[in-house]
What does this fold into?
Amino acid sequence: MPTLDALLASRHSVVAVVTQPDRPRGRGHKIIDAPVKARAAAASVPLFQPSRLKDPVFLDWLRGLAADLGVVAAYGKILTDEVLAMPRLGLINVHASLLPAYRGAAPVHRAVIAGEAETGVTIMRVVKALDAGPMLASERRAIGPDDTSDVVEQDLARIGARLLTRSVDDLAAGRAVETPQDDAAATYAHRLTKDDSHIDWSQSAATIHNRIRGLHPWPHASSFVNGRRLILLRSSVEIGDVREPGTILNAHGDHLTVATGEGVLRLLAVQPEGKRAMAVRDFLAGRPISSGDRFTSTA
It folds into this structure.
């Protein structure tokens, strides 16, 4: 969304927007216009939502635009050779990592899970190979020790929008410099699944803390205590006595601390399955959880 807003506010003309088809959203599974679609409509920009990029009707429409440049931002589909060949200046992508690190679908989440101290945005040319095109510009952004993926993503979206408009200006003026990526240094950020949510308490407290941050806001880190699944929303790392990993050391007031393979993890905010998110004090009130109970990977 910041990317589209930045382009609409720039000196360049946005001739059309392509986004994915409408899908059911929320608990009621109602069809609601996505923000990109609503923004395009508000700006009176033509919109197409193809279910297949090889759809002849879509390709004829796209070809008829005679666009100079295509811009991709979190589209979520692999572009076909025919689409890549249409704009006179090709297509460029706003990618939320410092390429060639974290190519792929979940660069921000994987960087936070890995405990990286920084990430960034790269503007690159789209080629057939995944996120492997030459780079036009990049900008770094530190990852704070308690930053969650959603906070980092929102910040990178703003940075990327600003960086993109500069890159479009450079391409239009013929002064853009494209730097090849070092494929040998590439790493991949695989798509997140619900299976990523499981916590291994034999890992260090720092590793688990990073996982909780990186899996927010989806699919969330989770574990089981007394047979019930608990979603782990916020945490901190503390020094403490070594106990069997997963053992609850303190469950009173604002304190819910758990032994790990190295160090102690303090849970600050949690969400019982099917309930609202809450601070630990609210969660512990009236719930039979005691020191010595254990978190487990299954019910």
Observations:
- The mean pLDDT is 94.
- The first strand starts at residue 17 and ends at 18.
- The chain has two domains: 2-189, 194-296.
- Helices lie at 2-9, 35-42, 56-65, 81-85, 107-113, 149-173, 205-214, 280-284.
